[in-house]
Amino acid sequence: MAQYGFKTTGKTIVLDFPAQVKDRIFAITGPSAGGIGAETAISLAHGAPSQILLLGRTLSKIQPTIDAIHSIDSTITTRFIPVDLSSLTSVRATAKDILEDESIPRIDVLFNNAAIMACPYSLTVDGFESQFATNHLSHFLLTSLLFPKILAAGPAARIVNVSSQGHGFSPIHFDNPNYAPAGDGYTPWGAYGQAKTANILFSLQLSKQLRANGSGLRAYALHPGSIATNLQVHVKADPGMIDKGLQIWEEKTGWEGKLPKKSLQEGCATSLRAALDLDLERPGDEVETAEVVKRVYLHDCQIVTSRDKVMPHALDEADAERLWGLSEEMVGEKFVV
Q: Where exactly are the transmembrane stretches of this chain (predicted)?
Protein backbone atom coordinates (compact mmCIF):
# COMPACT_ATOMS: atom_id res chain seq x y z
CA MET A 1 0.00 0.00 0.00
CA ALA A 2 1.28 3.42 -0.96
CA GLN A 3 2.08 5.81 1.85
CA TYR A 4 -0.11 8.88 1.74
CA GLY A 5 0.36 12.15 3.58
CA PHE A 6 0.40 15.93 3.42
CA LYS A 7 1.67 16.19 -0.18
CA THR A 8 -0.50 13.45 -1.69
CA THR A 9 -2.67 14.69 -4.55
CA GLY A 10 -6.24 13.83 -5.42
CA LYS A 11 -5.22 12.56 -8.85
CA THR A 12 -2.75 10.16 -7.22
CA ILE A 13 -5.51 8.67 -5.06
CA VAL A 14 -7.86 8.28 -8.04
CA LEU A 15 -5.21 6.55 -10.14
CA ASP A 16 -4.29 4.25 -7.24
CA PHE A 17 -7.89 2.99 -6.88
CA PRO A 18 -9.18 2.71 -10.47
CA ALA A 19 -11.76 0.02 -9.70
CA GLN A 20 -13.41 2.28 -7.12
CA VAL A 21 -13.89 5.07 -9.67
CA LYS A 22 -14.58 3.53 -13.06
CA ASP A 23 -18.28 3.39 -13.94
CA ARG A 24 -19.36 4.55 -10.48
CA ILE A 25 -21.66 7.45 -9.55
CA PHE A 26 -20.45 10.28 -7.31
CA ALA A 27 -22.47 13.12 -5.77
CA ILE A 28 -20.74 16.23 -4.40
CA THR A 29 -22.22 19.22 -2.61
CA GLY A 30 -20.48 22.57 -2.95
CA PRO A 31 -18.49 21.98 -6.17
CA SER A 32 -18.06 25.65 -7.11
CA ALA A 33 -14.99 26.49 -9.14
CA GLY A 34 -11.84 26.98 -7.09
CA GLY A 35 -12.98 24.90 -4.13
CA ILE A 36 -12.21 21.48 -2.70
CA GLY A 37 -15.46 20.02 -4.03
CA ALA A 38 -14.62 21.10 -7.57
CA GLU A 39 -11.10 19.69 -7.29
CA THR A 40 -12.53 16.41 -5.98
CA ALA A 41 -14.78 16.16 -9.04
CA ILE A 42 -11.99 17.09 -11.45
CA SER A 43 -9.70 14.46 -9.89
CA LEU A 44 -12.41 11.81 -10.26
CA ALA A 45 -12.63 12.59 -13.97
CA HIS A 46 -9.21 10.92 -14.40
CA GLY A 47 -10.79 7.57 -13.41
CA ALA A 48 -13.70 7.38 -15.86
CA PRO A 49 -16.68 7.46 -13.50
CA SER A 50 -20.14 6.92 -14.95
CA GLN A 51 -21.71 10.06 -13.49
CA ILE A 52 -20.69 13.03 -11.37
CA LEU A 53 -23.61 14.85 -9.76
CA LEU A 54 -22.74 18.41 -8.79
CA LEU A 55 -25.11 19.79 -6.16
CA GLY A 56 -25.02 23.54 -5.67
CA ARG A 57 -26.95 26.76 -5.70
CA THR A 58 -25.78 28.48 -8.89
CA LEU A 59 -24.93 26.90 -12.24
CA SER A 60 -22.67 29.78 -13.26
CA LYS A 61 -20.34 29.01 -10.34
CA ILE A 62 -20.26 25.30 -11.18
CA GLN A 63 -20.07 25.44 -14.98
CA PRO A 64 -16.26 25.83 -14.89
CA THR A 65 -16.10 22.57 -12.92
CA ILE A 66 -18.26 20.85 -15.52
CA ASP A 67 -16.05 22.22 -18.30
CA ALA A 68 -12.89 21.02 -16.52
CA ILE A 69 -14.33 17.52 -16.12
CA HIS A 70 -15.28 17.33 -19.79
CA SER A 71 -11.86 18.60 -20.85
CA ILE A 72 -10.45 15.46 -19.21
CA ASP A 73 -13.15 13.02 -20.33
CA SER A 74 -16.11 14.23 -22.38
CA THR A 75 -17.94 10.89 -21.98
CA ILE A 76 -18.61 11.40 -18.26
CA THR A 77 -22.22 12.29 -17.53
CA THR A 78 -21.83 15.46 -15.47
CA ARG A 79 -24.97 17.02 -14.06
CA PHE A 80 -25.70 20.20 -12.16
CA ILE A 81 -28.42 19.59 -9.56
CA PRO A 82 -29.71 22.75 -7.86
CA VAL A 83 -29.95 22.81 -4.07
CA ASP A 84 -29.96 25.53 -1.43
CA LEU A 85 -28.47 24.04 1.71
CA SER A 86 -29.82 26.89 3.83
CA SER A 87 -33.34 25.56 3.19
CA LEU A 88 -34.59 22.16 4.29
CA THR A 89 -37.43 22.50 1.78
CA SER A 90 -34.87 22.81 -1.00
CA VAL A 91 -32.94 19.81 0.30
CA ARG A 92 -36.11 17.71 0.33
CA ALA A 93 -37.01 18.78 -3.22
CA THR A 94 -33.54 17.95 -4.51
CA ALA A 95 -33.49 14.56 -2.82
CA LYS A 96 -36.94 13.78 -4.26
CA ASP A 97 -35.76 14.63 -7.77
CA ILE A 98 -32.72 12.36 -7.41
CA LEU A 99 -34.72 9.50 -5.93
CA GLU A 100 -37.27 9.67 -8.74
CA ASP A 101 -34.65 9.92 -11.49
CA GLU A 102 -34.26 6.44 -12.97
CA SER A 103 -31.06 7.50 -14.74
CA ILE A 104 -29.45 7.67 -11.29
CA PRO A 105 -29.83 4.07 -10.11
CA ARG A 106 -27.53 4.45 -7.12
CA ILE A 107 -25.03 6.78 -5.44
CA ASP A 108 -21.70 5.09 -4.82
CA VAL A 109 -20.17 7.99 -2.90
CA LEU A 110 -21.80 11.07 -1.39
CA PHE A 111 -19.37 13.87 -0.59
CA ASN A 112 -21.00 16.26 1.88
CA ASN A 113 -18.50 18.96 1.06
CA ALA A 114 -20.32 22.32 1.03
CA ALA A 115 -19.84 24.72 3.91
CA ILE A 116 -19.92 28.30 5.09
CA MET A 117 -17.32 29.60 7.54
CA ALA A 118 -17.12 32.13 10.36
CA CYS A 119 -19.98 34.27 9.09
CA PRO A 120 -21.99 36.87 11.02
CA TYR A 121 -24.91 35.59 13.06
CA SER A 122 -28.04 34.77 11.04
CA LEU A 123 -30.88 32.28 10.99
CA THR A 124 -31.98 30.22 8.01
CA VAL A 125 -35.53 30.25 6.67
CA ASP A 126 -36.16 27.29 8.99
CA GLY A 127 -35.03 29.26 12.04
CA PHE A 128 -31.68 27.53 12.60
CA GLU A 129 -28.26 29.12 13.09
CA SER A 130 -26.85 29.33 9.58
CA GLN A 131 -23.52 27.52 10.02
CA PHE A 132 -25.03 24.61 11.94
CA ALA A 133 -27.87 24.38 9.43
CA THR A 134 -25.83 24.64 6.25
CA ASN A 135 -22.79 22.64 7.30
CA HIS A 136 -24.54 19.91 9.29
CA LEU A 137 -28.35 19.77 9.36
CA SER A 138 -28.87 19.98 5.60
CA HIS A 139 -26.25 17.29 4.98
CA PHE A 140 -27.77 15.11 7.70
CA LEU A 141 -31.15 15.43 5.98
CA LEU A 142 -29.76 14.98 2.47
CA THR A 143 -27.89 11.82 3.47
CA SER A 144 -30.96 10.45 5.21
CA LEU A 145 -33.24 11.04 2.23
CA LEU A 146 -30.73 9.70 -0.33
CA PHE A 147 -29.82 6.69 1.80
CA PRO A 148 -31.90 4.22 -0.28
CA LYS A 149 -29.78 5.01 -3.34
CA ILE A 150 -26.58 4.92 -1.31
CA LEU A 151 -27.56 1.54 0.08
CA ALA A 152 -28.30 0.35 -3.47
CA ALA A 153 -24.63 0.87 -4.32
CA GLY A 154 -23.61 -2.04 -2.10
CA PRO A 155 -20.93 -2.48 0.56
CA ALA A 156 -18.36 -0.27 -1.20
CA ALA A 157 -20.56 2.82 -0.89
CA ARG A 158 -19.20 5.66 1.21
CA ILE A 159 -20.45 8.86 2.84
CA VAL A 160 -17.72 11.47 3.24
CA ASN A 161 -18.30 14.51 5.45
CA VAL A 162 -15.78 17.30 5.05
CA SER A 163 -15.03 18.68 8.51
CA SER A 164 -12.05 20.73 9.70
CA GLN A 165 -9.54 21.09 12.48
CA GLY A 166 -11.74 24.07 13.19
CA HIS A 167 -13.86 21.60 15.17
CA GLY A 168 -11.48 22.47 18.00
CA PHE A 169 -13.22 25.82 18.46
CA SER A 170 -16.27 24.27 20.10
CA PRO A 171 -18.19 21.16 21.07
CA ILE A 172 -21.96 20.98 20.43
CA HIS A 173 -24.07 23.37 22.50
CA PHE A 174 -26.83 20.86 23.04
CA ASP A 175 -28.79 23.22 25.27
CA ASN A 176 -28.77 26.02 22.71
CA PRO A 177 -27.34 25.15 19.25
CA ASN A 178 -29.08 28.16 17.69
CA TYR A 179 -27.66 30.73 20.12
CA ALA A 180 -31.13 31.92 21.07
CA PRO A 181 -32.33 34.49 21.64
CA ALA A 182 -30.90 36.76 18.95
CA GLY A 183 -27.40 35.30 18.81
CA ASP A 184 -26.80 35.17 22.56
CA GLY A 185 -23.24 33.94 23.07
CA TYR A 186 -22.61 33.67 19.33
CA THR A 187 -19.14 34.03 17.88
CA PRO A 188 -18.37 33.29 14.22
CA TRP A 189 -15.54 30.91 15.10
CA GLY A 190 -17.43 29.18 17.89
CA ALA A 191 -20.39 28.47 15.64
CA TYR A 192 -18.07 27.20 12.92
CA GLY A 193 -16.43 24.88 15.42
CA GLN A 194 -19.80 23.54 16.56
CA ALA A 195 -20.81 22.77 12.96
CA LYS A 196 -17.50 21.08 12.15
CA THR A 197 -17.71 19.01 15.35
CA ALA A 198 -21.18 17.97 14.21
CA ASN A 199 -19.71 16.67 10.92
CA ILE A 200 -17.43 14.31 12.85
CA LEU A 201 -20.03 13.18 15.40
CA PHE A 202 -22.51 12.51 12.58
CA SER A 203 -19.90 10.35 10.85
CA LEU A 204 -19.18 8.51 14.09
CA GLN A 205 -22.79 7.65 14.85
CA LEU A 206 -23.60 6.81 11.24
CA SER A 207 -20.58 4.54 10.93
CA LYS A 208 -21.50 2.88 14.22
CA GLN A 209 -25.01 2.15 12.95
CA LEU A 210 -23.71 0.95 9.59
CA ARG A 211 -21.44 -1.50 11.39
CA ALA A 212 -24.42 -2.78 13.34
CA ASN A 213 -26.58 -3.40 10.27
CA GLY A 214 -23.83 -5.31 8.47
CA SER A 215 -24.27 -3.46 5.16
CA GLY A 216 -20.55 -2.81 4.75
CA LEU A 217 -21.14 0.89 4.05
CA ARG A 218 -18.99 3.37 5.92
CA ALA A 219 -19.01 7.06 6.81
CA TYR A 220 -15.95 9.23 7.38
CA ALA A 221 -15.12 12.82 8.28
CA LEU A 222 -11.90 14.65 7.56
CA HIS A 223 -9.76 17.75 7.79
CA PRO A 224 -8.76 18.63 4.21
CA GLY A 225 -5.99 20.99 5.24
CA SER A 226 -5.49 24.73 5.23
CA ILE A 227 -6.36 25.80 1.69
CA ALA A 228 -7.14 29.19 0.16
CA THR A 229 -10.69 28.99 -1.26
CA ASN A 230 -13.85 31.08 -1.37
CA LEU A 231 -14.80 29.51 1.96
CA GLN A 232 -12.78 32.27 3.64
CA VAL A 233 -14.89 35.10 2.22
CA HIS A 234 -15.82 36.49 5.64
CA VAL A 235 -12.31 36.06 7.00
CA LYS A 236 -10.81 37.93 4.04
CA ALA A 237 -13.22 40.80 4.64
CA ASP A 238 -11.79 41.32 8.15
CA PRO A 239 -7.98 41.04 8.16
CA GLY A 240 -7.80 40.83 11.96
CA MET A 241 -10.27 37.98 12.16
CA ILE A 242 -7.83 35.21 11.27
CA ASP A 243 -5.27 36.23 13.91
CA LYS A 244 -7.98 36.45 16.57
CA GLY A 245 -9.33 33.09 15.48
CA LEU A 246 -5.93 31.44 15.63
CA GLN A 247 -5.35 32.76 19.13
CA ILE A 248 -8.67 31.37 20.35
CA TRP A 249 -8.08 28.08 18.54
CA GLU A 250 -4.61 27.61 20.04
CA GLU A 251 -5.94 28.36 23.53
CA LYS A 252 -8.77 25.84 23.18
CA THR A 253 -6.84 23.05 21.48
CA GLY A 254 -3.21 23.46 22.45
CA TRP A 255 -2.38 22.95 18.77
CA GLU A 256 0.02 25.12 16.83
CA GLY A 257 -1.68 27.76 14.68
CA LYS A 258 -0.86 28.93 11.16
CA LEU A 259 -1.04 25.52 9.54
CA PRO A 260 1.06 25.05 6.40
CA LYS A 261 -0.92 25.66 3.22
CA LYS A 262 -2.01 22.95 0.83
CA SER A 263 -2.84 23.22 -2.85
CA LEU A 264 -6.35 22.28 -4.00
CA GLN A 265 -4.99 18.98 -5.33
CA GLU A 266 -3.44 18.20 -1.96
CA GLY A 267 -6.59 19.38 -0.21
CA CYS A 268 -8.98 17.02 -2.00
CA ALA A 269 -6.77 13.94 -1.52
CA THR A 270 -8.02 13.16 1.98
CA SER A 271 -11.66 13.23 0.83
CA LEU A 272 -10.79 10.87 -2.00
CA ARG A 273 -8.93 8.40 0.15
CA ALA A 274 -11.90 8.26 2.50
CA ALA A 275 -14.14 7.57 -0.49
CA LEU A 276 -12.04 5.06 -2.42
CA ASP A 277 -9.75 3.03 -0.15
CA LEU A 278 -11.86 0.10 1.05
CA ASP A 279 -9.10 -1.04 3.41
CA LEU A 280 -8.82 2.36 5.03
CA GLU A 281 -10.32 1.48 8.38
CA ARG A 282 -8.44 -1.76 8.86
CA PRO A 283 -6.70 -1.14 12.18
CA GLY A 284 -3.22 -2.18 13.09
CA ASP A 285 -2.55 -4.61 15.92
CA GLU A 286 -2.03 -1.70 18.28
CA VAL A 287 -5.63 -0.50 17.97
CA GLU A 288 -7.90 -1.85 20.65
CA THR A 289 -11.20 -3.32 19.49
CA ALA A 290 -13.20 -0.83 21.54
CA GLU A 291 -11.59 2.04 19.64
CA VAL A 292 -12.20 0.72 16.11
CA VAL A 293 -15.59 2.44 15.94
CA LYS A 294 -13.83 5.78 16.43
CA ARG A 295 -11.71 5.36 13.31
CA VAL A 296 -13.77 7.81 11.29
CA TYR A 297 -11.65 10.98 11.10
CA LEU A 298 -8.84 11.58 8.62
CA HIS A 299 -6.01 14.10 8.61
CA ASP A 300 -3.41 14.22 5.81
CA CYS A 301 -4.93 11.10 4.22
CA GLN A 302 -4.59 9.03 7.41
CA ILE A 303 -7.14 7.98 10.03
CA VAL A 304 -6.32 9.63 13.34
CA THR A 305 -7.78 9.31 16.83
CA SER A 306 -5.07 10.94 18.94
CA ARG A 307 -5.59 14.14 20.93
CA ASP A 308 -2.95 15.99 18.89
CA LYS A 309 -5.13 15.76 15.76
CA VAL A 310 -8.75 15.46 16.92
CA MET A 311 -10.42 16.80 20.05
CA PRO A 312 -12.04 14.26 22.41
CA HIS A 313 -15.39 16.05 22.17
CA ALA A 314 -15.54 15.16 18.46
CA LEU A 315 -15.17 11.41 19.11
CA ASP A 316 -17.49 11.18 22.10
CA GLU A 317 -19.90 8.30 21.43
CA ALA A 318 -22.55 9.59 23.83
CA ASP A 319 -22.50 13.01 22.17
CA ALA A 320 -22.67 11.39 18.72
CA GLU A 321 -25.83 9.53 19.68
CA ARG A 322 -27.26 12.66 21.30
CA LEU A 323 -26.54 14.77 18.21
CA TRP A 324 -28.26 12.19 16.01
CA GLY A 325 -31.45 12.51 18.05
CA LEU A 326 -31.21 16.31 18.11
CA SER A 327 -30.69 16.42 14.35
CA GLU A 328 -33.71 14.20 13.71
CA GLU A 329 -35.79 16.48 15.91
CA MET A 330 -34.58 19.66 14.20
CA VAL A 331 -35.10 18.45 10.61
CA GLY A 332 -38.31 16.58 11.45
CA GLU A 333 -37.09 13.40 9.82
CA LYS A 334 -36.07 10.01 11.20
CA PHE A 335 -32.85 8.67 9.72
CA VAL A 336 -33.40 4.92 9.41
CA VAL A 337 -30.18 3.03 8.66
A: none
